[in-house]
Each structure stands twice: as C-alpha cells, then as structure tokens.
Amino acid sequence: MDTRTVGCLGGGQLGRMMVYAAHRLGVRMCVLDPLGESSPAGQVSELSIKGSFQDAEKIRELASKCDILTLEVEHVNAQALEELHLKGVPVQPLPFVVKLIQDKYDQKVHLQKHRIPLPDFLKVDSEAELHEIGEKFGYPMMLKSRFGAYDGKGNAVVSDAASIPAAWEKLGGKAGKKLYVEKWAPFKMELAVMVARGVDETMNVTMRTYPVVHTVQRDSVCFTCLTPPVGVTQKEQELAQKIATDAIKSFGDARGIFGVEMFLLDDGSVLLNEIAPRPHNTGHYTMEACGVDQFEQHLRAVLGLPLGDCHLRVGGAMMVNILGQGSTPELTAQTMAPLRCALRVPDAGIHWYGKDGCVKGRKMGHITVTGFTPASALEQIRPVLKAVDGEGNSSSIEVPHKSSPSVGIIMGSDSDLPTMKDAAVVLDDFGIPYEISIVSAHRTPEYMYEYATTAADRGINVIIAGAGGAAHLPGMVAALTPLPVIGVPVKSSALSGNDSLLSIVQMPKGIPVATVAIGNAANAGLLAVRILGAANPGMRQKMAQFMANEATTVEKKRRKLEQVGWQAYLADSK
Amino acid sequence: MDTRTVGCLGGGQLGRMMVYAAHRLGVRMCVLDPLGESSPAGQVSELSIKGSFQDAEKIRELASKCDILTLEVEHVNAQALEELHLKGVPVQPLPFVVKLIQDKYDQKVHLQKHRIPLPDFLKVDSEAELHEIGEKFGYPMMLKSRFGAYDGKGNAVVSDAASIPAAWEKLGGKAGKKLYVEKWAPFKMELAVMVARGVDETMNVTMRTYPVVHTVQRDSVCFTCLTPPVGVTQKEQELAQKIATDAIKSFGDARGIFGVEMFLLDDGSVLLNEIAPRPHNTGHYTMEACGVDQFEQHLRAVLGLPLGDCHLRVGGAMMVNILGQGSTPELTAQTMAPLRCALRVPDAGIHWYGKDGCVKGRKMGHITVTGFTPASALEQIRPVLKAVDGEGNSSSIEVPHKSSPSVGIIMGSDSDLPTMKDAAVVLDDFGIPYEISIVSAHRTPEYMYEYATTAADRGINVIIAGAGGAAHLPGMVAALTPLPVIGVPVKSSALSGNDSLLSIVQMPKGIPVATVAIGNAANAGLLAVRILGAANPGMRQKMAQFMANEATTVEKKRRKLEQVGWQAYLADSK
User: Fold this and answer.
1) Could you say which EC number(s) this protein's record lists (chains A, B) (predicted)?
2) pLDDT exceeds 90 at position B258
3) Is the backbone peptide bond immediately before B90 cis, with ω within 30 degrees of 0?
C-alpha cells in the first residue's frame, strides 16, 4: 500500500514486531543488526544488513537502501544519524531526541526546563560530591549511569552513606563513567503510557495517547503490565497521560511512538521516570487490546500516515514477559513452561521472538491475556505466572496486581444481609466475582462517598445497593458513579417496604437507579448478570440457560399437579 | 517453543498468515509455491521451495525438509501426499480428506452418507441427462465442475432448459470435463463456520467451533463477512455450528482447521454448501476478534498442540476483501483506496498480502473492523465499503448486512410516546443507535413474543419498555429475553402511575425488570447508557462527563439564587 522502505537500527524483538506491522501495511523494511538476517527482525524483514548500529558506515549503507530511518533501540550512533539527517535523509524520531535520551542527565534537564514533574536529580563527579548529595536528598537515593543503561543495568540503590563507595565502584565512577543521582521517589505504583506523535496531511502535528498501564518490575526488568490499572483513579490516570503527552510535546517535530515510564506517589501525584523513543515493552499489550498496536502506530507516525485509534477494544489486558532461564544456551523446560501453559489459557496471545539461543534473563517472548475486565484477565493469566516460577514455587506466586470483583454488593445495615445475601448466591451460581460490604448513606456518609467515587476505578462494573425505609443508599451511590446501580428496597417493619421502594425508585431526572421488587435481591443479582451480558454473548447464553432451567422447574410442578391432582399436591407440599 | 518445521503446500495469503502464527509459536515453516521465496508466504517463511504443489518430486523435497506437511490450498497432488503418508510422513489434514474435497461430487456423496443436510445433487454425463435432471430438480439449478473449482469459477447457473447447451459448453462438458448438478437452494443468507479438529495429550480427538458468520458474495467471490450474524436466530446459529461440526467429524482422524460454507433457508433449516480443508477467507475475522486466530488454530491442530478458545473477544466484527482493480499490473489508486481509507477507521485491522503485481479480481488484502456490537462494526466500516466502489458510486453503496440498533425502545400504546420520547432524546445525545416501536402485551401478544425472543439475535443490547396501568409489557418482555429490560411506569389517569409502578417493579424471583421512576423515561435512557458502559470505559467516560455537566447546570442556578435573591429568582423563572 505504501511503496517506501523503512530502515530500522536494531533487529531485536521490537524490530521483529515492527516488521509484522510493516507487512500488514505493505511497507518494506531493512534492519541493521549485528546478527543481520538471523536477528529476530532480520529473519522476517525484506532486507537486512549485518553490522553494528554504532557503525556510521553501516548506518550510511542502511540509509542508501531506505527511504526513511528509524530505530528500535536508542543506543545507536546518533551522530551518524544527525549527519545523514542534515544531508536530507529523513530520520524519525529526530536525531536530537535520540541524543537527548541517550544522556539520561540531559534528558532530565530538558524535561525539567519544560516543567515536567521529575524526582530531584543532580550531576555527580566524585564520591565526595555523592556524600554531599546524600545529605541533601536523604537515603535511599538512586545512583545512575548517564549513558547506556537499560533494564536496571547502570542503576544502583544507595541505601546509606556507608554504601556509597560500593555503589560508586559498581557503576564505574572510579573509571570515570559519567553518573548522576536521583532522589528516591517513594512510589506506590509504577505506571507507563505510550504516546504517538505524527503529522496530518498538512504536516501539522497530531498526537494520540494509549491507556495507562500498571507495570511491575522484577530484578529491575519489566515483569508484568496490567491495563486498565486497578487501584489507580481516573484522575490519576488522566494526570499520567497528561504528563506523558506534555513530555513528548517538548520534542518539537520528532515523530514516532514513545514509551513514558512514571511513578505514582501516595498523594496521587505523578513523576516521570524515563522515556524510550521507540516501541516499548509496556506497550506490547496493544497488539491484542487496541485497534492499532504500538508497532503499526510507530510506522504510521514515522511515515506520516494517519495515526490510529488508541482505545481499548477489550475490557482489560495483562502481559507477562518470558525471560530465559537456566545456564545453558539450550531452551530449558522451565523457559518454555509458561508458553506451553499459555496454550491452554483462553484469550492468551503468545509471542515467541525466535531468538537464537537462550541467555538467563533475556527476553525470549511474552504473553498477553485479554479479558472482559482487568480482573478476568488477571484471573486467566494466573497459571502462566505460576509456570514462570516453576511448579515447585507455585504456592508462593502472587499475582503482582490488585484484582477487582465485577459486582459490588452493599447495604445500609447488617439487618439487610438476610435479604441481600440472595444476590451473592446468584452471582456465585454464575461464577461472577463480587465484593460485599456495609455502606450506610446516613451513618457513614464519607465512606459511602469514597466507595461510590472509587468503584469504577477499582474495576467494579455494576453496584447492587440494598436499603430500607428512607433508603437513600442506592440513589446517593448512583449520584456519585457513572456505573449502573441496582436498588433493592428492603422490606421495612413500619410500611412493609413501600417506603423503601418509593425512596429508591423515584429518582430525579439525571440519576437513574435500576429498582427491583421489594426484598428481591435474587432479581438484583440476575439483573447484574443481564447487565454484564448486555454486550457479552457468553454471559447472555448463561442467562438463557438459567431461564430454560427455571422453565423446566415450573414444567415439573405443572406435570405433578396434573398427575396427582390438587388435593395430593397440597398435602405433599405441607 | 516447538522445534518442528511445518511444510505447507501453497504460499499465498493464507500461507503467509499461517507463517505469522508459526512465528509466534516458535515453529519454523517451509512453503512450496510456484513463486517460491517471492510468494506471499515465501517472503516471510524460514524456508521455501520454488515449484508446483502438483509436482510429486517437489512435494517429496518439501517432506525431506519438514517434520509434518499441511496445505493452504486443496488443489494439490493428493496422490503424492498419500504415498508420503503411507511411508510414515505425517500429513494433516489426511490425504484421503484432501482427495475427497477435490472431487466436489464425491465430497457430497460422503457427506450424504453421514446424514449431513445438503441440496439435492446428481452426477451428469451428457446434455441429455442434464435435461432430465432439469425436469426433476426444476429451474434454476446449479451445474458445477467436480474438480478444480474455486471462487465461483467452475459453476454455472442453469436458469431454464434453453440455457443448458451454453452452460454445458461453458463448463467444458463437451470436452469431457466431469460435472455434476445441484438443485437450487433458495437461501436467504449464506453462513460459514470454521471448525478445528485436533488431539489432546492422549491423542483423543478434540474439536472447537468458531462463531457463525454471515457471508456475502459478489460475483461469486467472498466480499464481506459479519459476526455475530445479525438476523440469524440463536437456534439457527447453533444448527449451523452443529452441521459444520458433524461434517468435520465425518473425516475420521483428519486434523486441522476447516471452513464450512452453508445456506440458511427461509424456514430456518441449514444446508451445507462446501468445505475447505484449510484456513478460509470467512475465518479472517478471527485475527482481530478471537483469542486464537484460524491460522494459529490450524497449526495447533496439525501439530497436536492444545486447541485454543474460539469465542469472540469483541462484540462484533466485519471483514471486507480488497480485490485488485484496473487492467494493469500496477497498483491503481482504486485498489488502494479502501486501505488508505481504513487508516482513518478506528479498530480497523489492515492486512496487505504483499503480492507482486495486481490482477483484476485478485485478493490483494483484507480489512477487519471490530466493534462493541456488530452494528458498530458495520457503522465504522461504511466508508471503507464506499472506497471499494470508488467515490463516484458512493451514493449507491449499501452495507450488505442488516444493521442493528443497540437499544430497543418499546411502549404499549402511542399514548405513551410523549413520555417515552425522552429516552430517545438521551440516546441521541449519547450517539447510541436505537429502534422505537409500539408493542402491546395485551393487544399484540404474538408480536410481543416475536419482538422479545428475537431482540438479542437482532443485535439489541438493552430494551427499554414503557407501559401504564396493568403495565405487563416490561415484565413479559423480560421473561422472553436474556437481555436487561428497563421498565418505565407511565403515569396513568386513574392511579397516577402507582398501578404502573407496582406492575412493573414487583416481578417474581427469576425475572428482573430494572424499574425507574414514574414517567421518567429520560432516566431509562441514562440507565441504558450506564448499562452499555458497564464494561466499556469510553461509554463510562461519556456518562461521567454528562454528570459533570449536570452538576455545572445546578451550580449556575445556585450562584444565580445566591446573587439575585429568591424574589428576583422566582420572578425571573415565571
């Protein structure tokens, strides 16, 4: 469809997945990689060059075969790219951005100038200076290499003054390596956002931002990502997207996709950690979860094609990286175990990178599981996570993300529980995860506010609220959440639930409560199932089956009455 | 992950997409195709052989390089496959099935023996015989080549006795080509189902069936596919899946994926049309819409890996084929137009096959658009369909499938319309497609039954039902559909809607109606939006925005009251 050839510096797994996207668009690719045509990307690209992406000569050779240059790794010869760019060769992202990102300290100075919130940081040239900074920043603090760091390599935690010499030594300070220090960010979670920057037909900048993911590191390497991130409020997600977008805006006319890693602090503020000027591990989930994945989006941005839509096509997605295990280049059973396991997991996308030989800790592949909700994705990926750590450790494995039930059952008082339990029984029957709690509009108004305003962010899809008498709970909760709220009027002693019913059903225009019959919490549970099945054929089928079973039950009673007559029937039911 | 090499006879687009799937699983592939390494599949596979898949020598060469043989086209040298298989080379699907399918007449005889419902068919050896059959079957009838037919080539419609000589000539009857006749199947729609047949660890057969798609042909070539098929009942879909599954069961130990094309007749019966023993055009939608696509499923089946889940991960999907246009081998703007257009369509998966040169009518690529519902997929793909036919014809293009609204608004009487219109206004504001109708439980009970039982099959996600007085409509509709039903008690003159409210809300256990306030159809519309947003973050965001706007409106009123005082405020509102 597009007759251009894209040259890519680097031929690893990111390049490989970029080649797949190029094929779909009809774009040709040539990769430059030390492994040439046996690199993961070289195996599938139309052309490849064997050589270092640091080698100016090879980069010029690549440029001679291509219409535009891009990259899948930032540790390239940016000088060579700059020279080519000055001679009129299109390079995206622009070489100055690649240079800026190569020097983590300069990157931070640039972002600070553009008012992007960051952890405090300082250049450090000697051990003595590091002590001074320790006094200022407090401990722990992070000592980091300015150049060439990735996957936690080139970072050291300085836990106290006594550990300064070891950290200084470890990162090569003595050998003259350029280092800098970052104040510790006391984050409660790490977030990441992919941002695409392209141009429209009139060469005006266009930007698209993917959803926020919660990322979990293990030994400083990305282990899992979950989206939407459970336990992160809508406001926090919007803040993270805004900071990521603002940061990429600071890169002028640079185009492509950018991975932005951030810290979410306890107070809800967000600090930028670092930026990758290319597809990123935290964006792999887009292959299954979004209309256009990060690789195609990168190519669209670089080539000046229209950017694609970034929203989630599914309710939730979780990715886990598969790292090499064992000490031999052979693929051990342990490395393969999560992949073999994933073959049995519904909605698991398996991605093997085709790397020659296995190295411990090397990214060999990844698996993304999608679900109707983030909770269902989490639930389904559990056996794969177990397999990552091997059967022996299976008891210790914990899903590294908060899970969330689909339905919240709440009631104004524990006296409503004998009624409300019927909703729980129905949800158990349908296998739908729920939480159940006491939330009183009148006695715990602050908690009610908190419960209702955070429910959607916690992954809840439907709320069932029961209350009696003045029965304000369902309506107040509905006023505080965009979720559907089902109201159960609990039978009161004074007015037999008439009061509860009218309090719940007679809501003003603007805020609906889905009201069921007095005391009929079972129907509230069934309505929740119907709501979850509104756009879910599988769930709808389960409801149809339930209704067929109910019909059979009545059918049996009918036959019995017709056979034994009313006297025997009544005598029997006594 | 799997160290085996799969050999594939044929290297077209189906082979190419099979190679992508193989890569993800870590499986190597070698393709045999006349175009060798420049064939669509050869461009991306690890190995390729240039040669005909009819050439026994080349097939043996392929076998020598591979652990198992399969195919992406059935017009291969089945004899050569059979000989290899007898010598112990694994071949899947089994050669006897390939042979059976190559002869369309024998295929039908085999399926008839296994009691698969088919249009009547007969062998025909002379023009005279064809006249006799015409007397028996009636006209029109289908004259078909037994061998080598595809994409409508090798088929001729015999519209009456007078057209027999021309049809006989066209299909080569005179030249001794083997033909047979099929009685015309007066179908209302064409359906297709992909069926996978594999084995478990103990080599027991396992089968998985994908959802039913509605396929539309143009000039006898697959043009579009929609799933779930709008206007096909659940029962009809289950019947189509059962017939497809039964047909594939008849193939003994053969493994792989099979495309089964069927006719749906007016009376709801289903006849099998034909079977392809490989991935199929009608299964392309699985790439975006299902957890495991047809290509990976085929490899899993052939290799004896566990079969993957077949259910839809999205609410709906529609595929359109992009055929070569124009009379030159150059890619014309018209051929490219739908692809360029798709770059701007949300959730459009673009697949270009990388074929060298363009031939009119040749499959050059395809586009699949997914949506929250089949209706939204249909709506989104509309500009792509327009682009297929060129801008000049844009007024004439019609989406070749029934569309379906998301919400059904129904009421017992037109006297309810002044109330119920408020629900429509809300849905218009939120951009949600709806249908609106009069359905009376008491005056049109049959129509109510039909409306309620077909709503889900027609693509409706939520029903809003308004009624007054005895107000049976919402409850009766809820009893006949697994969809969520919202009840609006319309204010009655006798009891001010108290009667309507109690009739609607006091449903027995088992069948819930989500009841809103008396006369408050706007809240019913808003509740429908919340229900559609229960698992759809985008829709939920729209609801949150609506609630924020409502708050702003009240805020303004509050400020005005505080500024002007109550006297002026009331005077102003008069």
Assistant:
1) 4.1.1.21
2) yes
3) no
Q: Are A179 and A143 in contact (CB under 8 A)?
A: yes
DSSP A92: S
Is B344 touching A (CB cutoff 8 A)? Answer: yes
Residue with tokens 């060769």: A89
User: Which 8-state DSSP code applies to residue B440?
Assistant: -
Nearest-CA distance B131 → chain A (Å): 48
Mean pLDDT of B298-311: 95
Name which of A305, A339, A505 is nearest B505 (Cβ-Cβ). A505
C-beta atoms of A482 and B520 within 8 A: no
Size of interface A-B (CB pairs under 8 A): 232
Cβ of residue A346 closer than 8 Å to a chain B Cβ: yes
Chain B residues with beta carbon closer than 8 angstroms to that of A25: 350, 352
Residues of chain A numbered 68-127 and touching chain B (CB < 8 Å): none
Chain B residues lying within 8 Å of A526, measured CB to CB: 510-512
Give the whole-angstrom CA distance, residue A53 versus residue A59: 7
pLDDT at B31 > cutoff 90: yes
Pick A516's closest partner by Cβ from B373, B512, B517: B512
A533:B351 CB<8 A: no
Give the residue from A487, A512, A509, A511 showing the smallest Cα distance to A500: A487
Sign, CA dihedral B136-B138-B143-B144, equals negative
Contacts of A352 in chain B (CB under 8 A): 1, 23-26
Q: What is the DSSP string of B10-29?
A: --SHHHHHHHHHHHHHT-EE
Mean pLDDT of B402-423: 92
Give B132-155 as a DSSP string: HHHHHH-SSEEEEESSS-BTTBTE
At A539-571, the pLDDT tens digits run 888 999 999 999 999 999 999 999 999 999 999
Distance in angstroms (rounded) separating the CA atoms of residues B196 and B296: 11
Angstrom distance (rounded) from CA B1 to CA A364: 10
The SS3 of residue B35 is coil
3-state secondary structure at position B253: coil
B81 closest CA partner among B66, B98, B65, B64: B98
Task: For residues A120 and A522, give the distance between their C-alpha atoms in angstroms, rounded to a whole number.
Answer: 55
Residues 233-272 of A with CB under 8 A from B: 234
List chain B residues with CB under 8 Å of A200. Answer: none
Owner of token pair 């094609």: A305
Give Cβ neighbours of residue B308 (< 8 Å, ≥ 6 apart). A343, A346, A348, B208, B291, B292, B296, B297, B300
User: Could you tell me if A311 lies within 8 Å of chain B, comparing CB atoms?
Assistant: yes
Q: If we measure between CA atoms, which residue out of A141, A157, A15, A140 comes closest to residue A73? A: A15
Give the mean model confidence (pLDDT) for residues A380-401: 72
B165's CB contacts (< 8 A; 6+ apart) are B127
What residue in A sits closest to B407 (Cα-Cα)? A534
- What integer pLDDT is reported at residue A398 of this predicted model? 63
Interface subset of A 361-380, CB within 8 angstroms of B: 365, 370, 372-373
Are A304 and A4 within 8 A, CB to CB?
no
**Per-residue three-class SS string for A230-268:** CCCCHHHHHHHHHHHHHHHHCCCCCCEEEEEEEEEECCC
Query: Does the interface ipTM go beyond 0.90?
Result: no
Helix (H) or strand (E) holding B289: helix B286-289
Hey, is B470 helix, strand or coil?
A: coil
pTM of the predicted protein model? 0.88
Judge: A25–B352 Cβ closer than 8 Å, yes or no.
Answer: yes
Q: Which of A285, A128, A316 is nearest to B536 (CA)?
A: A316
Cβ contact, residue pair B311, A544, below 8 Å? no
Please name the residue ranges forming H helices in B103-233. Answer: 104-113, 127-137, 164-170
